[in-house]
Write a structure and sequence with these properties.
This protein has helices spanning 57-66, 82-85, 88-94, 104-114, 181-196, 200-210, 229-240, 258-272, 287-293, 313-325, 344-348, 371-387; strands spanning 3-7, 10-17, 22-23, 27-28, 33-41, 46-49, 74-76, 99-102, 121-123, 129-131, 136-141, 151-156, 160-164, 217-220, 245-252, 276-281, 297-307, 310-311, 331-338, 358-359, 363-366. By secondary structure, it is α/β, with parallel strands linked by helices. A hairpin with a 2-residue loop joins strand 17 (297-307) and strand 18 (310-311). Helix 5 (181-196) packs across helix 9 and helix 6 (200-210) packs antiparallel against helix 7. The structure holds MU-OXO-diiron. Residues 79, 81, 83-84, 146-147, 165, 222 line the site of MU-OXO-diiron (FEO). MU-OXO-diiron binds at residues 79, 81, 83-84, 146-147, 165, 222.
């Protein structure tokens, strides 16, 4: 691990996890990830903000020691998940004088997750300021980005916001800063989709609070640092805001090509009208790309054949994911086919109860799609196009 200096008194200790393929055995990491901690050397006190994944604890402590620290006064825990808190015990073993500071919720989670005694933690309050001498840290509680304990820490007078998971990206990179904005946007969007999107109302509330701050730099605990904060703040406002973009996402699969013929027909009708579409075959679903596609899409159409009277299990899996992520789509629909009978739409629809969308008329074909099915798909395409018309201008 190498240490980079962000400011004369601020150091980044970023552990790059180049090879990690999955987070939580669930979230794909096409470009690995990093776990970033930050050290602040004030004129009187020294504080460490978060730590790194416990698998990298040894290197992390060595990096701290190479900085020539003779003592560490505080370990600030912005968030108790172990990819950031898991090396606290190793740091305490090297710097036993350090006091761990966390909010009450975070403390409870740390006590449980690290099996440490409750008495060893100091509590921080919302908007509380901690002096380090010539600099100070101000704590802002920002629950549900993405756990109930989430806190961000603001360093003054350098105006650096340490956000932990909030506004981060799963990206292992040698770049300290988010200079390659196209690459970082892709990674940050996928990260937002998988981690933050279910809590977008909280995201918007916290973004609103941050408008009162003069932020010079945003330093998250995954991915590179934002030296141009407006880049990520503007993206987050767009992603978490209520207004979707005209785009139709179609998770689908087919067993005997009936459903795939219906999907192809519907996509053609929409593309003819220049509406953006993105199908996803869910049999080998890339859940990261799929989640990312849901961030701004206006319309979701689930297309499945019937298996045992319901949706194919691969479709149920995709629906479960979409439902859990709570995208802001305003319209949704179900199409598909069956052999001897079906309750597929009735069985699939309850799996999507979190969608706050208007449901369009389903189109279900008996066997291969016939003229009346294509006519029904024409009507569905018309309804989708209507739903994606620009709102009329008001006087
Ligand atoms: Fe990166 Fe919620 O931990």
């Amino acid at each position: 691990m190498i240490v980079r200096q962000l400011k004369p008194n601020v150091y980044s200790l970023a552990a790059q996890d180049w090879d990690r393929k999955l987070f939580d055995e669930l979230v794909p990491l096409p470009e690995g990830t990093s776990y970033n901690a930050y050290l602040i050397k004030g004129s009187e006190k020294t504080a460490l903000i978060d730590t790194v994944h416990p698998s990298m604890a040894e290197d992390f402590v060595l990096a701290l020691q190479k900085l020539g620290l003779t003592r560490l006064d505080y370990i600030i825990s912005n968030h108790a998940e172990l990819d950031h808190a898991g090396s606290i015990p190793a740091v305490l073993a090297a710097f036993p004088e350090a006091k761990v500071l966390a909010n009450a919720k975070c403390r409870s989670l740390l006590v449980a997750g690290l099996n440490l005694p409750r008495e060893m933690f100091g509590l921080i309050q919302d908007n509380h300021t901690l002096s380090l001498g010539d600099t100070s840290l101000r704590f802002m509680w920002m629950p549900w980005v993405h756990w109930p304990d989430s806190t961000v820490t603001y360093l003054e007078p350098d105006n650096i916001l340490f956000t932990c998971d909030f506004m981060g990206s799963h990206l292992a990179t040698s770049d300290v800063f988010a200079d390659d904005e196209a690459r970082v946007e892709r990674a940050a969007r996928m990260y937002y989709a998988e981690i933050m999107m279910p809590y977008r109302k909280h995201v918007m509330r916290h973004l609103e609070r941050l408008t009162a701050e003069n932020i010079a730099m945003i330093a998250p605990s995954h991915g590179p640092v934002y030296a141009r904060p407006a880049f990520i703040l503007d993206l987050y406002r767009r992603w978490a805001g209520d207004t979707p973009r005209p785009e139709v996402i179609v998770p689908y699969l087919s067993m005997y090509e009936s459903t795939s013929k219906m999907v192809a027909y519907l996509l053609d009708r929409l593309m003819e009208q220049n509406l953006k579409v993105q199908p996803f075959n869910v049999v080998e679903l890339d859940s990261g790309r799929f989640a990312s596609s849901l961030v701004e899409a206006s319309t979701l159409i689930f297309a499945s054949p019937t298996v045992l009277d319901g949706a194919h299990p691969a479709m149920a899996n995709a629906a479960f994911l979409a439902n859990a992520l709570k995208p802001k789509a305003t319209h949704a629909g179900i199409i598909g086919s069956y052999g001897w009978g079906t309750s597929m739409p009735e069985n699939l629809r309850p799996l999507l109860n979190n969608l706050n969308a208007e449901w369009l008329e389903p189109v279900i074909a008996s066997g291969v799609p016939k003229p009346e099915d294509f006519a029904a798909l024409d009507r569905l395409a018309g309804a989708i196009l209507q739903a994606n018309q620009p709102a009329p201008a008001t006087a």
